[in-house]
Structure formats: structure tokens, C-alpha cells
Write a structure and sequence with these properties.
With about 325 residues, this protein is of the alpha/beta class. Helices cover about 45% and strands about 10% of the residues.
Length: about 325
């Protein structure tokens, strides 16, 4: 009996990869999306560093890693034994510098990293991670019940169980709730301080120009939950911090969360007005033919091994 595992392994064999897969794969560029790269047991979850090494080693030998400016090159839109792939990382965590960057250097695979500048400049981490950290600490300290009771009359229990609930709220309401959670836990004696999780500007610049950097808003909001004026102000701060930290304004941008419902046409025009010419989403797919640089698609990478990643990239359309 041929199992899915056997099929995945068969697809990685050189003779199959070089003769059959070019006809099975949709032509075009695959853009991979990574976040954290770490070890099991870390406070913040991410792709295991050993799995990431397998990914990069596989991509370096079976695909053609490219840089952002090569995305629209017509030669990458044809069927090939070594199709083009672009690696991207959201958020700029310190584990990129400590764990991912050395592996990328070892295999000579460039990458693009998107920076939410509030967390990079001020330390700590982006708000979804702060929330998860606070909830974990509240549970460990036996304070979760008191915290949940605070929000039940207005929001029910889901408000702190599911980050998607907060992501669906207006941005100013989300901020108020997060401030309330923090001050409540402080009053209950729960430590809400989160150590720096992001790269420093010095670390970022030490990886350039091998690694390229793009914008990811200032405060990592869900853009569709902001007013046009709020988003304009957030992008202005994002660009100011990028210019100070990098010495220039990049031309690549990625939406936080990045699904169709997380941004709008007016928000897209705002981003483009700041000079960004490549706009990355989290919508899955291959960037093929006359693809739209305003809607660059990416593929998730939470796969257990390189064979599963290869199968994902083969199926993508």
C-alpha cells in the first residue's frame, strides 16, 4: 500500500524531482513565510531549528533561492527543475539572528525580514505574543480565573482564550483591553514584563546586505480594524523608524495577519503612497505569470520535515 509518507518521500528523489515534478508544479515563484525559529520547550513557540536546517538544505539543493527584486523576472515563471523560491520572515525576532541567520549564511540562501518597528525599537514583543505570555503567566500564578471574570460580563470567556476575538475588534478597543489585562495582572502580582524578543537595530544591520528588510507596520495592528487616519499615522511612524534604523526606507511591505479581510483597497493605497512597491499577504498560492505585486502570495512553513515542505510546494497553485 502506498501511503502519503511514501509519496512525499518519492517526490524528493532526484530522478522524480528533475523529470516528473516540473510538470506537476505550477510555474511561478513560491514565497515561503517563516516566523520564529527555536528549540522545543521555549516560552514562545516556533519552528524547530533542526527542521529549519533541513528546509534550507533542501531548498539550497533543489530550488533556486532568489531576492525580492528577482520576483518578477520572466525566467522564474517557466517550468524548471530548480524553481525559484523566496524566503521571508515576519517580525524580526532575536531567534532569527541567533538561529536562522547562521543557517541561511551557511547555505548561501538570502531572505527578506519584515519589521514591526515599535517592538524592534522599544524591546518586548508584538501584542499577540505579549497577550499569550500574560495568559500563560496568569495560569501559572493561579490568577487566570480573576482575569477571566473581569471580562465575562461584557465579552464572555473568549476574550482572553482566543486572540482572534481581539483581532476582530477596533484597534483602539483592543488597546484598551490589553492595557486592562496588564494593569489587572500587575495588581494581582503577576509579572507582565516581557524581555526583548526582537532583534536590535545593530543586529539587523550586521546581517545586511545579505538579508533584506521590509516594513510590517509600527504597532502590528489588524489594519482593517483601524480608521484611515490611524493607519496613516501608524505607517508614518513605521517609515520614520525604518529610516532611522536602516538609513533608508525599504520598498517591501507585509500586512500583519495578511488575509484578504485584514486590509482594504484604501489601506493598500496608503501603503503605496509611502513608496512600497511589493506588498506581501498571507494568502496562499504561487506567484505566477502576470502576478500582481500588490498581492504577493506566500506559503506557510510549519511542516515537520523537508519532504512535507516539498509536497506543500508541489501542491501549491
Amino acid at each position: 500500500m502506498i501511503t502519503p509518507k511514501v509519496i512525499k518521500t518519492l517526490l524528493t528523489q532526484p530522478v522524480v524531482h528533475n523529470t516528473v515534478l516540473p510538470f506537476l508544479r505550477a510555474p511561478g515563484v513560491r514565497v515561503l513565510m517563516y516566523h520564529r525559529i527555536g528549540r522545543l520547550g521555549s516560552e514562545f513557540e516556533g519552528l524547530n531549528i533542526d527542521v529549519f536546517r533541513d528546509h534550507v538544505a533542501w531548498l539550497a539543493t533543489r530550488y533556486t533561492p532568489i531576492r525580492p527584486h528577482e520576483l518578477a523576472d520572466p525566467k522564474h515563471q517557466t517550468r524548471s527543475k530548480r524553481p525559484a523560491v523566496l524566503l521571508t520572515f515576519d517580525d524580526g525576532y532575536t531567534d532569527f539572528y541567533a538561529n536562522a541567520y547562521p543557517i541561511l549564511r551557511e547555505f548561501n540562501v538570502p531572505a527578506l525580514v519584515f519589521l514591526p518597528t515599535e517592538a524592534v525599537s522599544d524591546g518586548g514583543t508584538i501584542w499577540p505574543e505579549r497577550l499569550q505570555c500574560w495568559i500563560n503567566r496568569a495560569r501559572a500564578a493561579g490568577a487566570y480565573g480573576a482575569l477571566a471574570d473581569l471580562f465575562k460580563p461584557q465579552y464572555g470567556d473568549l476574550i482572553i482564550k482566543n486572540r482572534q476575538v481581539l483581532k476582530s475588534m477596533p484597534d483602539d478597543e483592543r488597546r484598551v483591553i490589553l492595557d486592562t489585562i496588564r494593569t489587572t495582572l500587575d495588581s494581582l502580582g503577576v509579572d507582565t514584563h516581557v524581555e526583548r524578543q526582537m532583534m536590535t537595530w545593530s543586529q539587523i544591520n550586521s546581517t545586511r546586505p545579505f538579508i533584506e528588510y521590509g516594513a510590517h507596520t509600527h504597532t502590528h495592528p489588524i489594519v482593517a480594524r483601524m480608521s484611515p487616519a490611524e493607519f496613516q499615522a501608524d505607517m508614518q511612524r513605521n517609515c520614520e523608524h525604518l529610516e532611522r534604523g536602516l538609513g533608508e526606507r525599504p520598498t517591501t511591505f507585509a500586512w500583519p495577519n495578511g488575509r484578504w479581510e485584514d486590509f482594504s483597497e484604501s489601506a493598500l493605497e496608503t501603503v503605496k503612497s509611502f513608496g512600497f512597491t511589493q506588498i506581501y499577504t498571507t494568502v496562499e498560492g504561487v506567484n505566477r505569470g502576470q502576478f500582481n505585486p500588490d498581492e504577493i502570495r506566500r506559503l506557510p512553513t510549519i511542516t515537520p520535515d523537508a519532504t512535507s515542505l516539498n509536497a506543500l510546494m508541489t501542491r501549491a497553485s
